[in-house]
Amino acid sequence: MDSIKSRYEVIAELEKKKRSLILERDSLEDQLKRKEKDIKIMKREVEDAEEELLNFSQTMESQKETIKELILSVDESLERLSNLDRKK
Fold it and tell me: What single DSSP character describes residue 4?
């Protein structure tokens, strides 16, 4: 007969369950707000990444040209050193 609960115990368990359900219900709005905030942050991060990509692509040609000029400069230096070795 230990499994039989008193009316008080049943009421207490039901009240506890009700409080738990109310807390869960009330937290749903906060969860929604948190998810909306997370989405806004992610959108901002995507926008920043897209802007960074655009800036990179805009400067890429300039960087390629600069690197090309540096390679030519190194080639010229190598050629001069090679010519000096031949003259010796």
Answer: P
Amino acid found at 7:
R
What region does 5 belong to: left with phi over 0, alpha with psi -120 to 50, or beta? beta
Q: Residues 52-81: pLDDT tens digits?
A: 999 999 899 999 999 999 999 999 999 999
Amino acid identity of residue 53, one-letter, is L
List the alpha helices (DSSP H) in 1-88.
7-87
Whether the predicted pLDDT of 2 surpasses 70: no
Instruction: Return all residues near 13 (Cβ < 8 A) that are at least 6 apart.
Output: 5
